[in-house]
Amino acid sequence: MLAKKRKQQFTVASDESLAECLERMKKEGYRPVRRMEKPVFKENGSKTPIISHQQVIFEGVLEEDEQ
Known about the structure:
Blueprint: E1 7-11, H1 18-27, E2 30-42, E3 50-62
Antiparallel strand pairs: 1-3, 2-3
């Protein structure tokens, strides 16, 4: 059996809500410890990129680590 990583990042998909991502983390045995938001840029033809949207990423740790 492969050992799970102690920490793992979960990106919220475009068709997924925050609650659904947190539920997915819980099913995989991880508990959220950090939330990060990264801007996603797109080009608009000029030299300055514009922000398209924010990408939400949760960092989780294995539940077994806490016990």
